[in-house]
Design brief:
Blueprint (H helix, E strand, L loop, with lengths): L1 H11 L2 H23 L5 H23 L7 H19 L5 H15 L1 H9 L4 H14 L1 H13 L30 H13 L3 H6 L1 H13 L1 H6 L1 H7 L4 H16 L2 H16 L11 H21 L18 H17 L5 H10 L3 H14 L8 H8 L1
Helix pairs in contact: 1-2, 1-7, 2-5, 3-4, 3-7, 4-5, 4-6, 9-19, 11-18, 14-15, 14-17
The structure holds zinc ion (ZN).
Zinc ion (ZN) binds next to helix 9.
């Protein structure tokens, strides 16, 4: 490995300088092994170096096998500097001042960001890079094993828009971007419209998106309740209640028919009862209508009778029983959504999880230029799967 490193070094500097550095490292390696043989260096007095060394090994293994673009050379450099200090301290009592300086110089050379950048990023050194990697892999078998498993989990997956004959890979999670099951091009085709014109409905129905709107309504509650326009619309209700009511109505519509009667009752008690903490402050008239519809569905059921007996409630209230009330509360939510939420920091946070990182965005834009609007064919059902 030292040989490989000096080969890279020789290209970067003069061959002579590289050779000197290499010889120094060989000498030090020999000296260290001798000291270990003589039991001057033992497991006990070097134990504290083990963890930093292992840590460095993992960092190097990662850096030497990852996409070159994602490697931070500065981090490697600071790790190497730390190891130099630890090793220097261990060896110092056993070696001459001259040799100590050589160690510091040699380490300084190989931990220099210029050297690391070349080894990792320069295509010229692909072979050397692999040799160093293979050697390190032998030195840190357990870490290598872990890395291999990690890599397998992060294996690239093909773009989900297979129907359009796409053979690209999906964009992985990166920074604040959540990752996508689509390639850059198809991600943009599917999500650009959603990002540009967000809909209140999806921020209520989609589990992930709802967390952002919910977070905003909690964080900005005081402002919403005091700002004149919104205050008037809310009519005393807390904005978060309207949001929970909307979600409850949605859940009600999806619930099994057999459970609908009970669920409708629960919604009434929790949100439409004047004394309830979740009261949404809507017009009494509308609540009265909803209650009447519910009673009617019971009567209808009783009159008809079923083989499950008079008390069976299979004749459930209609799905749209709360729609008029929901329309009223959603008008308030829509106002908050348009005027406040979309301009909020919370929404900006959401956008960052959805918008392609610059590198991928450029790639997508290039594709768009090439293909025109073809990407719009990406399947909508796939997208919904991802959204929920
Ligand atoms: Zn694709």
């Amino acid at each position: 490995m030292i040989k490989t490193l000096s080969l890279v070094a020789s290209v970067l500097t003069t061959e002579k300088e590289a050779k000197t550095t290499r010889d120094d490292l060989y000498k030090l390696a020999a000296k260290t092994s001798l000291l270990m043989d003589e039991k001057q260096l033992t497991e006990k007095n070097t134990a504290h170096a083990e963890e930093p060394l292992r840590h460095l090994g993992v960092k190097l293994l990662n850096a030497l096998s990852a996409d070159a673009g994602s490697v931070k050379v500065e981090v490697l450099h600071s790790n190497l500097v730390r190891i130099r200090e630890i090793l220097g301290e261990i060896l110092k009592p056993h070696i001459s001042a001259k040799n100590y300086q050589k160690l510091i110089d040699a380490f300084g050379f190989y931990s220099d960001t210029k050297f690391l950048t070349s080894l990792i990023h320069d295509a010229k050194f692909t072979h050397e890079k692999k040799t160093v990697f293979d050697n390190l892999a032998k030195m840190f078998p357990a870490e290598m094993d872990k890395l291999r498993k990690q890599r397998a989990r992060a294996k690239p997956i093909p773009c989900a828009a297979v129907a359009s004959g796409c053979k690209q890979l999906a964009v992985r999670q990166q920074g604040q971007f959540n990752g996508s099951q689509f390639c850059p091009y198809h991600h943009m085709a599917v999500f650009e419209q959603k990002i540009k014109s967000p809909k209140l409905e999806t921020f209520i129905s989609n589990k992930n998106m709802a967390t952002y709107l919910c977070q905003y309504l909690i964080q900005d509650e005081d402002n919403l309740c005091t700002e004149n326009n919104t205050k008037k619309m809310l009519n005393g209700a807390k904005p978060l209640r309207l949001f929970h009511f909307a979600r409850a109505v949605l859940a009600y519509k999806l619930v099994d028919r057999k459970l609908r009667r009970n669920r409708a009752e629960a919604v009434l008690q929790k949100y439409l009862n004047k004394n309830a903490t979740g009261f949404v402050h809507v017009d009494d008239k509308h609540v009265a209508v909803a209650k009447k519809v519910m009673v009617e569905s019971d009567v209808h059921n009783t009159a008809k009778g079923t083989k499950y007996g008079q008390k069976a409630t299979f004749n459930a209230p209609p799905k749209d029983i709360f729609d008029v009330i929901l329309g009223a509360t959603n008008r308030v939510l829509q106002h908050i959504f348009d005027e406040r939420y979309l301009k909020s920091r919370v929404h900006a946070m959401y956008l960052r999880t959805m918008s392609l990182p610059p590198y991928w965005k450029n790639m997508a834009l290039k594709e768009v230029k090439k293909n025109g609007e073809a990407g719009k064919n990406a399947s909508e059902t796939k997208e919904e799967k991802q959204a929920s």
